[in-house]
């Protein structure tokens, strides 16, 4: 146990001694403010993109006339996809562009009607 205490004290003493050597490498005056960063973006150019996904839905109908009854449920699901292409040109702070896009969906559903 005594050997561990001596080892722990040696580690602590080493850490404290090394922090003084790092302090010697610091500049005499630390900068008070970060230098201004100039970022210039140019939005001119052509772009192409795609999108896709999966959709689903479930809707229930209830009859409100007495007696209240469940009229059925509609369930739909399917895939969708599409793409876009466009071109932009930047004039100073203004950006003008043209874009074309198309989408496709294959959402199909069915209705489970309550017996009438």
Could you write a compact summary of the structure shown?
The chain has one helix at residues 2-23; strands at 45-63, 69-91, 94-113.
Work out the helicity level.
Answer: 10-25%
The low-confidence parts are none
Rg from Cα:
34 Å
- Helix-and-strand structural type: alpha+beta
| Distance from first to last alpha carbon | 86 Å
Q: Got a strand count?
A: 3
Lateral strand order in the biggest sheet:
1-2-3
Q: Average pLDDT, to the nearest integer?
A: 80
Count of DSSP-assigned helices: 1
Strand content: over 45%
Query: What about the largest sheet?
Result: 3 strands, antiparallel
From the spread of the alpha carbons, the general shape counts as: flat
Q: Spell out the helices and strands N to C.
A: HEEE
Description:
With 116 residues, the chain is an alpha+beta fold. It has a domain at 42-108. It is built from one helix and three strands. It has one helix at residues 2-23, and strands at residues 45-63, 69-91, 94-113. A three-stranded antiparallel beta sheet has the order 1-2-3, with no helix packed on it. A hairpin with a 2-residue loop joins strand 2 and strand 3. The protein starts with a helix and ends with a strand. The mean pLDDT is 80.
């Amino acid at each position: 146990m005594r050997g561990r205490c001596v080892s722990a004290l040696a580690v602590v003493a080493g850490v404290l001694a090394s922090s003084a050597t790092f302090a010697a490498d610091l500049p005499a005056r630390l900068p008070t403010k970060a230098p201004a960063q100039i970022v210039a973006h140019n939005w001119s150019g052509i772009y192409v993109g795609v999108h896709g996904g999966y959709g689903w839905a479930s809707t229930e109908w209830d009859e409100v006339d007495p007696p209240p009854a469940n009229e059925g449920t509609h369930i739909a699901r399917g895939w969708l996809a599409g793409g876009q292409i466009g071109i932009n040109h930047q004039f100073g702070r203004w950006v003008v562009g043209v874009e074309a896009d198309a989408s496709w969906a294959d959402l199909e559903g069915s209705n489970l009607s309550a017996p009438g």
